[in-house]
Q: What sequence folds into this?
């Protein structure tokens, strides 16, 4: 649907118009130039691996000081991006990542902060635990025994007792949690806490008493969720802030985590969410053709690649809750167009929208959104678990995405370790975007000209569990570990 | 322009033992901090370890939050220091005014104000301050939710009394400002009954007129339609109540018939782009609610949306058709 302003411009419509002007499919500057993968609507995996590799291994320029209180996030965003791209670090770098994270565990309060010596905070705690899920899984072939268990996995060094005490100390009587000892209350914190509690097998009734009602209070008349809610008496709530994509994801994921752990009985007088309005709002957040079908985060605001996950990922959450199959109510094919054509940056990484620069946050959430879109378009495949192998599966029975007029491209690198050893120059070679061909990383190359039979594989990324934004393998391994009876009681 | 002197070079800080961030490990994704920042954070870690709460700590934390407004630990420690040394919270608030304008999008800047406000308890001044910041960014999420918190927390009728006018000014400036529409809903329907608003029938009528006029002026405005839906649902009024109003919006400009001025049913403005997909959706909802044979009318409308007026959401309209047909079969 083309955006129309009823011949009544306001700042919103003016801003919208100028954004739309830049949301066009990129094309080569001259007819004689061969289109790049991005210009052909293909995910340029190698390019993005280079972007991620540079940041992880060479480090971040001074302007990243603004992220100094989000260091676990920097690791999570890059490592989960790698997981989605079916790449894992070698053991040396995994250990480095784990040590870095553990250095951010707060020795006094428990939990994790944005950096070593920083106060405990629910958001970096989530990022830290998820990073450990990615890099810290015990080798399944080795048997745990009391002496070597510590060396098998850094998960033994997570102080769950202190973490549980921290969680309780942050709780408010109305069911909400503040993010740090004197920090703000909002639903992101609640989600982060519940996700961690689930991964580490720490969800108790005591922990979550009243939380579901508070989360429900965050739903607005539009159907999405606000950042927080304030009680206004007689069991009623007023949401603080309008319906917003980021908060909606957190609220819905929190709700699902609570519902799965403590299912409400059908006879329960407990009020439910307004799913009808939520579904409508989610669908309304997707942009039209002139916005390349990207998602916006709020009504009458601009589309942004990160909402590919925050809003696009909500549909998988609804599926999980309602145990439904097959009813795709949104436009995943369209979302792919946005991510592949607008969000991919020609020098690597993904972004909000052109002409903005890429960053690791937008790289992850665009890729996670792309993964969601890929799996949503394939109702025949079973859950994303089946694709955690390195080879793409998929029967491409779906119609081709409008983007693809390009030759077939099996653009997957096999599990390519990003080596840390100084003798190997693999990483710096492949990381440099100025080099024409990376030296040793298998490069995606277009093969024969496309025929109707050789459509590109529809699923090229790993699936991601919508509750955590981790691959099912990583999430399940961690949950299983902490369920074992030998684990110390955290209370 | 001279570089600020490092704490390491200042005699009055020589008693503090600075602490490096990473002692034994070289992390992945290291940030290449400037010396000024490294030095300030080393000294911050130093005083945090000893638990010092003093005037010079206020100086250091101010320096830090200027360098990195997202450094929540520095904010938290600063707040604790203000409490410990008995600082004047109003002076602190004035200092924050400057920072807020430069760093509007940081959580911490606004949360710190909230903590101060809990001590100072002068919300009217805050509402003025917030109103000024909207000139810079009329949709700032932190600012709007902070405003709502102030109003709900202090719950003072004096504060509430000016709110409707305030939000109308912003809607006049931009009828598509969804933050303002949300705030209107919050003020009118989600914050209890304020002085002068006791006649709920009158309030409802006023709101209906307001939203209809907004739709009439700019029909393709999702904010207004969402407000209309919210208003009706919240007050348990069926959508069918406004069917005569919305019907003209489902037709093209050529098909408009209204000659008479009907205040209850303002027609689409001359510049409107019609038919309006949001109106067609609304009409379909009305038919769906009626059920029975009317469901087929709803189905027709959903088909028209999926095929012509809102093609991007085709799958959603197909889902609505399936659900609608399923409903009348049971």
A:
């Amino acid at each position: 649907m083309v955006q129309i302003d009823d011949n009544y411009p306001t700042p919103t419509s003016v801003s919208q118009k100028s954004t739309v002007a830049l949301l066009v499919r990129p094309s080569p500057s001259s007819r004689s130039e061969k289109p790049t993968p991005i210009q052909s609507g293909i995910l340029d995996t190698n390019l993005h691996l280079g972007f991620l590799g540079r940041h992880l291994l060479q480090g971040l320029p001074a302007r990243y000081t603004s992220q100094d209180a989000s260091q676990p996030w920097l690791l999570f965003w890059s490592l989960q991006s790698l997981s989605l791209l079916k790449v894992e670090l070698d053991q040396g770098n995994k250990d480095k990542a784990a040590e870095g994270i553990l250095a951010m565990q707060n020795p006094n309060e428990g939990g994790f902060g944005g950096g070593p010596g920083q106060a405990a905070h629910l958001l970096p705690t989530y990022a830290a635990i998820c990073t450990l899920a990615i890099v810290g899984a015990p080798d399944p072939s080795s048997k745990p025994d009391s002496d070597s268990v510590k060396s098998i996995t850094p998960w033994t060094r997570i102080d769950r007792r202190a973490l549980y005490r921290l969680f309780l100390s942050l709780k408010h009587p109305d069911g909400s949690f503040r993010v740090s000892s004197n920090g703000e209350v909002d639903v992101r914190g609640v989600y982060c806490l519940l996700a961690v509690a689930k991964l580490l097998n720490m969800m108790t009734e005591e922990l979550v008493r009243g939380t579901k009602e508070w989360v429900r209070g965050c739903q607005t008349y539009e159907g999405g969720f606000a950042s927080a809610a304030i009680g206004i008496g007689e069991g009623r709530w007023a949401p603080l802030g309008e319906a917003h994509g980021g908060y909606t994801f957190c609220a819905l994921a929190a709700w699902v985590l609570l519902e799965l752990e403590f299912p409400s009985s059908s006879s329960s007088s407990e009020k439910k969410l307004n799913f009808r309005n939520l579904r409508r709002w989610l669908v309304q957040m997707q942009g039209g053709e002139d916005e390349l079908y990207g998602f916006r985060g709020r009504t009458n605001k601009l589309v942004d690649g990160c909402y590919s996950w925050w809003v696009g990922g909500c549909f998988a959450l609804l599926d999980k809750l309602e145990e439904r199959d097959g009813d795709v109510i949104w436009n995943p094919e369209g979302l792919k167009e946005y991510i592949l054509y607008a969000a991919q940056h020609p020098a690597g990484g993904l972004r909000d929208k052109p002409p903005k620069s890429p960053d690791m946050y937008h790289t992850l959430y665009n890729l996670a959104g792309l993964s969601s879109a890929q799996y949503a378009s394939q109702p025949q495949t079973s859950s994303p678990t089946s694709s955690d192998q390195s080879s793409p599966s998929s029967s491409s029975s779906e119609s081709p995405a409008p983007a693809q007029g390009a030759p077939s491209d099996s653009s997957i690198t096999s599990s390519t370790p990003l080596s840390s050893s100084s003798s190997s120059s693999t990483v710096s070679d492949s990381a440099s975007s100025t080099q024409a061909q990376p030296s040793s990383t298998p490069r995606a190359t277009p093969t024969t000209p496309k025929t109707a039979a050789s459509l590109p594989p529809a699923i090229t990324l790993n699936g991601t569990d919508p509750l955590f934004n981790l691959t099912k393998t990583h999430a399940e391994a961690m949950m299983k570990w902490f369920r074992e009876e030998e684990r110390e009681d955290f209370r | 322009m001279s570089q600020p002197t490092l704490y390491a070079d200042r005699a009055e800080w020589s008693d503090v033992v600075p602490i490096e961030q990473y002692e034994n490990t070289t992390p992945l994704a290291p940030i290449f901090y400037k010396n000024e920042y490294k030095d300030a954070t080393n000294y911050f870690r130093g005083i945090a370890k000893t638990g010092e709460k003093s005037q010079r700590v206020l100086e250091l934390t101010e320096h830090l939050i200027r360098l990195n407004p997202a450094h929540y630990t520095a904010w938290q420690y600063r707040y604790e220091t203000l409490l410990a040394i008995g600082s004047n919270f109003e002076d602190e608030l004035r200092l924050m005014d400057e920072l807020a304008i430069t760093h509007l999008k940081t959580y911490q800047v606004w949360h710190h104000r909230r903590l101060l406000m809990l001590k100072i308890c002068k919300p009217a001044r805050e509402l003025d301050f917030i109103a000024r910041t909207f000139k810079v960014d009329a949709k700032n999420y932190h600012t709007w939710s902070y405003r709502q918190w102030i109003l709900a927390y202090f719950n003072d009728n004096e504060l509430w009394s000016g709110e409707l006018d305030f939000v109308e000014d912003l809607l006049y400036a931009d009828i598509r400002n969804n933050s303002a529409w949300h705030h209107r809903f919050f003020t009118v329907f989600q914050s209890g009954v304020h002085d002068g608003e006791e006649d709920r029938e009158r309030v409802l009528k006023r709101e209906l007129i307001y939203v209809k006029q907004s739709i009439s002026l700019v029909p393709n405005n999702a904010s207004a339609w969402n407000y209309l839906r919210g208003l009706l649902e919240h007050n348990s009024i069926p959508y069918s109540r406004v069917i005569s109003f919305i019907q003209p919006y489902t037709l093209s400009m050529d098909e408009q018939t209204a000659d008479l001025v009907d205040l209850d049913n303002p027609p689409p403005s001359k510049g409107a782009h019609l038919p309006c997909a949001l109106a067609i959706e609304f009409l379909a909802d009305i038919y769906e609610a009626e059920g029975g044979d009317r469901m087929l009318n709803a189905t027709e409308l959903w088909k028209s949306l999926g095929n012509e007026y809102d093609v991007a959401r085709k799958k959603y309209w197909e889902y609505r058709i399936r659900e609608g047909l399923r409903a009348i079969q049971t």
Remarks:
- The longest strand of chain A covers residues 228-231.
- Residues 381-454 of chain A have pLDDT under 50 and may be disordered.
- Chain A has 18 helices and two strands.
- Chain A touches chain B through 82 residues (CB under 8 Å).
